[in-house]
Amino acid sequence: MKAKNNEIIEIVVDEKEDFYNQFNLHKLSSELGKYIYEQETGIPLKSNISIHIKTRFDLTAKEKNEIMDMIREYFGLNIQEMLNYEKYNSVRKVVLFILGIILIFISRMASQVSDYVIPEVFLIVGWVAICEVFENILFIQPQDRFKLLRYRKLVKCKIIFEQELE
After folding, report:
1. Residue 108 neighbours by CB distance under 10 Å
2. Number of C-alpha atoms within 13 angstroms, CB side, residue 144?
């Protein structure tokens, strides 16, 4: 649904238990979190997002605040996980790049000593390591940054509760 430059994600919840993770009642249900993210994927990044939660039961102000906090925490933890992975991946890229250069250097040194298969193997493995780094930078990293932007947008979005009469 659309309202001016504001995109709305509608959620209809039949029971209170649908909000909560079955193993921890202080965490958002992973099914609900995934649903919210999937609904947000078709929305342009420039649009404002609001989540309209329609319930068929009453929620106290405290419960509404807890649910809003759980939604923000769910996507905030996803952001933190992605940032942690990005740190790890940066170290991995540097190590792979250095390893690739070292293997190419070893290949050049070994080719002066012998013309057999060993120098070629080092050369191929070195270039594969370097290509892996560039593939990650060119294709995977932009995709992850896009996902990160979407998670940040969901953390900051407006959440509205409505009671739906049956």
Report:
1. 13
2. 18
Q: What is the pLDDT of residues 20-57, one digit of tens each?
A: 999 999 999 999 999 999 999 888 888 999 999 999 88
Q: What is the pLDDT of residues 106-165, one digit of tens each?
A: 998 888 877 778 889 999 999 999 999 999 999 989 999 999 999 999 999 999 999 876
In whole angstroms, give the CA distance from residue 136 to residue 133.
5
Residue from 165, 128, 153 nearest 50 by CA: 153
Q: What is the pLDDT of residue 50?
A: 94
Torsion, CA 86, CA 87, CA 88, CA 94, rounded to 10: 100
103 contacts 129 by C-beta, under 8 angstroms: yes
3-state SS track over the chain: CEECCEEEEEEEECCHHHHECCCCCCCECHHHHHHHHHHHCCCCCCCEEEEEEEECCCCCHHHHHHHHHHHHHHHHHHHHHHHHHHHHHHHHHHHHHHHHHHHHHHHHHHHHHCCCHHHHHHHHHHHHHHHHHHHHHHHHHHHHHHHHHHHHHHHHCEEEEEECCC
Longest dimension (CA), the chain: 84
Residue 155 one-letter amino acid: V
